[in-house]
Design a protein that fits this description.
Length: 320
């Protein structure tokens, strides 16, 4: 049966474990969308065994990804982000088949029902994203080494890690190749490469933005990210290499899903863990509420001190 909606992921073997955990969270916390949407996985290097493993979690449709134009694949943007960060450009052509496609980075954990996003956003504008909340870096200029003088660099930056694309998107037939060509043209000037291109695309084609609430792409810079009392966050996104679910601190909901992944026969990740997480694991402290989602005191001392002071008042009463 044809489905009007799709959820789109892109990964290689490096983040295979993260996608698997993400799919487990999607299955657990968003059952409506698991029924209403196709799960699309664009990939490089996933073996038939890898694909079969993911299919045990949720049925997926796999497509091997190739960057659409010739460019310098030795550029640091491809080494830091891989070609797969640009796979989202393929969604513009997929809108000939689907009414709405939700792109989600694989370094996420689904916390609630994503049907809310599909049913409430994108119908007027054709695209919906969250504003970037990174402190001091909330404008589009963050995506470029040098400003692009032909565009307004003072406008807000929208975080591309979660993006809803809809088939009423203005000029959608032109967007795929425009994005690829501009990526190649601006490659040396891009910092957050795909995000920079998509944000400029919005200006170039005069596309209105439907702004998603921050619970749809909750970043580490958002106070809601580590708030254990909240039940409304739909997507936790550990954007930035320093605050990964699996390396930064003990994140009980993620660790529970990761344990399920390992029990299925998944390979452990090999990323180095922060000393704070190592300490929590060494002394088996993860079961204590204080350590669950506690800020790393070495990396974020001010956040940790604030958490230390407020924890008895904010969280201790919760467990009574």
């Amino acid at each position: 049966m044809h489905k009007d909606y799709a959820v789109f992921f892109a990964t290689n073997r490096r983040f295979f474990f993260s996608l698997a955990v993400c799919l487990l969270s999607l299955k657990k916390n968003s059952p409506k969308i698991c029924q209403k949407a196709d799960i699309l996985v664009y990939h490089q290097g996933l073996t038939p065994e890898d694909q079969a493993f993911l299919n045990k979690i949720l049925p997926c449709k796999f497509t091997e990804y190739h960057f659409a134009v010739d460019t310098d694949f030795e550029n640091i943007n491809f080494k830091n982000f891989t070609q797969l960060t640009f796979a989202r450009y393929e969604i513009f052509d997929l809108l000939a088949e689907y009414k709405k496609v939700l792109y989600i980075d694989v370094d996420v954990m689904i916390g609630g029902e994503l049907d809310y996003i599909f049913e409430n956003y994108g119908d007027k504008s054709g695209i919906a994203m969250c504003k970037d909340t990174q402190k001091g870096l909330t404008l589009i200029t963050k995506n470029f080494v040098n400003p692009l003088p032909q565009y307004d660099m003072t406008v807000p930056c929208y975080n591309a890690g979660v993006t809803l694309f809809c088939n009423n998107l203005k000029d959608r037939e032109k967007l795929r190749m425009w994005c690829y060509q501009k990526t190649a043209e601006w490659l040396e000037n891009l910092v957050c490469p795909d995000q920079g291109v998509v944000n400029v695309m919005i200006q170039e084609f005069g596309i209105p933005m439907d702004v998603l609430p921050d619970i749809c792409n909750c970043l580490p810079s958002n106070p809601k990210y580590l708030d254990k009392k909240r039940k409304d966050v739909l997507i936790y996104h550990c954007a930035g290499g320093g605050v990964r679910f699996w390396t930064y601190t003990w994140n009980a909901p993620w660790q529970e899903l990761y344990a399920e992944y390992l029990k299925m026969g998944g390979e452990p990740h090999t990323d180095p863990e922060h000393g704070w997480l190592k300490l929590i694991k060494k002394y088996n402290l993860g079961g204590l509420d204080f350590f669950d989602r506690s800020p790393d005191p070495k990396m974020h001392p001010a956040r940790f001190l604030k958490y230390l002071v407020l924890w008895p008042y904010k969280y201790l009463t919760r467990s009574k």
